[in-house]
Amino acid sequence: MVDPPRTIVHREWTVYDGQPWLHVTCNEITTPDGISRSHHAIRLNTVVTVIAVDDHARVLLMRRHRWIVDTIGLESPGGIVDDGEDPHACARRELLEETGFEIGPLELIADLEPMPGLVHTRHLVFLGRDPRQAAEPTDGEEASQLMWIPLSHTADLLAHGELLGTGTAVGMLTAAAILARPVAADSERSRDTTNTELVTTRKSSPALVRSSSPGTDSSVR
Fold first, then answer.
1. Measured CA distances, 191 to 56, 151, 195 (Å)
2. What is the pTM assigned to this prediction?
3. What would the CATH number be for the domain defined by 46-180?
4. CB 16, CB 22: distance < 8 Å
5. Vertex 81: Cα angle to 76 and 86 (nearest 5)
6. Three-state secondary structure call for residue 92
7. Banded pLDDT at 175 (limits 50, 70, 90)
8. Alpha helices for the chain (secondary structure H)
9. In Å, how far from its chain's centre is CA 81?
10. Which of 72, 75, 163, 204 has the greatest CB tally within 10 Å of its CB?
11. Tell me: the pLDDT tens digits for 136-152?
């Protein structure tokens, strides 16, 4: 396949250096149509997202307020990879810090740039199974409610603007597609009869939000 025409970058200089996380540059470029102009670029460290799925095909999400967009919504655990840090190790660290949960083996299910026309920030999305609560969340800045949400609700949550972040949306859609493959013939599991649940931590005990079908185990493990 023939490559498309490329934009040529003639010069780049720093406008703002907010390392280790944020770096803004201005670039002199010539686009494929021959027009020369200046264009800003925002560069961030790699970001990881963890889609932690239990044996009822529910994903562990944080319901939280994002002040920059002034929105309350659902988001999967994750964060920025430190310089020199292994992305897998970062994913486990962020999951434990933000939720108190540990996870089984991690599988990379998405590697993407969510906004490549302006922002360079590689997003790595990991799928993990067998989540288990090992401790209390320790990241006070990321204060949130923890909820188990059925993967089958993903499209509806997206349609109503309730999912925060590209990694969460892509991760849930991809995880749902992956998990549907081996259970397609299992009519019991392919029909979603699971519940939405508010996770309680050991330090607090809000009432659980439950709408379980008979026989469905909705306890937090």
1. 11, 11, 12
2. 0.81
3. 3.90.79.10
4. yes
5. 105
6. helix
7. very high
8. 87-99, 154-159, 166-183, 187-190
9. 13
10. 163
11. 988 777 667 999 999 99
Instruction: Tell me the two tokens of residue 190.
Output: 């392919």
- CB environment 84-118: b (16+ within 10 A), e (fewer): eeebbebbbbbbbbbbbbbbeebeebbeeeeeeee
CB 76 within 8 A of CB 51: yes
Pair of tokens at residue 176: 């749902």
Separation between Cα atoms, residue 45 and residue 94, nearest integer Å: 15
- The residue written with tokens 């307020």 in the block is 65
The tokens for 210 are 């439950």
Q: How far apart are CA 111 and CA 215, in angstroms?
A: 38
Q: How far apart are CA 26 and CA 217, in angstroms?
A: 54
What stretch of H or E contains 71?
Answer: strand 71-75
Distances (CA, A) of 125 to 30, 100, 178, 195: 33, 19, 13, 24
Q: In sequence order, what E strands does 19-153 have? A: 22-30, 36-44, 47-53, 58-66, 71-75, 78-80, 101-102, 106-112, 119-120, 123-129, 132-133, 145-150
49's tokens: 């997202």
Domain parsing of the chain, residue ranges: 8-43, 46-180
Among 12-16, 138-142, 191-195, 203-207, the least confident range: 203-207
Task: Measure the CA–CA gap between 47 and 5, rounded to whole angstroms.
Answer: 29
